[in-house]
Amino acid sequence: MSGFVSVSCWKGATATSRSEAMVARARPTRVACSARSPLRMQIPNSPSELFRQNRANSLSGGRAAGAAVLERPRVEETTQPKTDPGKMYKVYIYNDDNHTKSYVVSVLMKVIPDMTKARATEIMESAHKHGSGMVGVWIFEVAEMYCDMLRTAGIQSDIIEA
Asked: Facing residues of 31 across strands?
């Protein structure tokens, strides 16, 4: 079976429109049209048939019966992103004489999710003894967020590429 329904128009009829022809699929196959001689139209049964018909018309240079689609102009990206989303970054805290050990531990536990008191104490002791302690490794956006939160709390911190 074809994907189209044939609709006949007859001589001397008064009005023609595509919508009348589309409605005719539900009614008898005779539709009024303004042609002087009998005319046969092919009306698609489905949207996919309509697409194929419009595509064939546009490829052959004919005028398509559907809405026109404009393509966006392609713009080539000339700037490289500042950071690679796949790279990992380490967050370090540094020793300072302004804050107590208990304050540093409490801030680490508040800022970093799932930070235990034992792990926070270990990081704080490393920073106290060696000058710096690694808090963790994350993608850039997360590492930057944690670093900013630590700085807001007054703890010296930095991000280093892993």
From this structure: 9
Q: At what angle do helices 140-152 and 101-111 cross, to 10 degrees?
A: 140
Residue 72: band (very low, low, confident or very high) from pLDDT cuts 50, 70, 90: confident
Give me the DSSP letters along 6-65: EEEE-TT-S---HHHHHHTTTS-SEE----SS-EEEEEESSHHHHHHHHHHHHHTTPPPS
> Is the pTM for the entire model greater than 0.70?
no
Tell me the C-alpha distance between 60 and 134, whole Å: 66
Of 116, 119, 126, nearest to 92 (Cα)?
A: 126
Q: What is the pLDDT of residues 16-40, one digit of tens each?
A: 555 554 554 544 444 445 445 455 5
Tokens 């042609």 identify what position? 35
Residue 59's DSSP bridge partners are none
Identity of residue 137: V
